[in-house]
Amino acid sequence: MENEFEKYVVKRDGKKDLSFYGEELNWVSSNTGNSSRWTEYTLYQTKKGKYVIQEAHYTLWQDEFDTYDGYVGNSLKEVFSKAFNLSEPSDLVKELAKGFLDLTEYIE
Known about the structure:
The protein has about 110 residues and is mainly beta. It has one domain (about 1-95). The protein has 2 helices and 5 strands.
């Protein structure tokens, strides 16, 4: 059954990396093509139905280092809540969630 899914390893600084079989659902980046610092998020679903968000911050600046983190949840709402402040989601987070999780605040 693993052959139907790709194997992924999500790097996490200061924590154990996450390894799983699954599929990539979405990827977003703040890189405009000439950025010296940018953020990338990748949303995955594991073959068992869990969700994973990989967070990567990249830099081209001297004496700075790329940083990585990853989050796991049993639902889209759970994993997004672990990874982000959903009361004030950034445009990049909204783009990652688009088509998967509604981050709209509905008012009357």
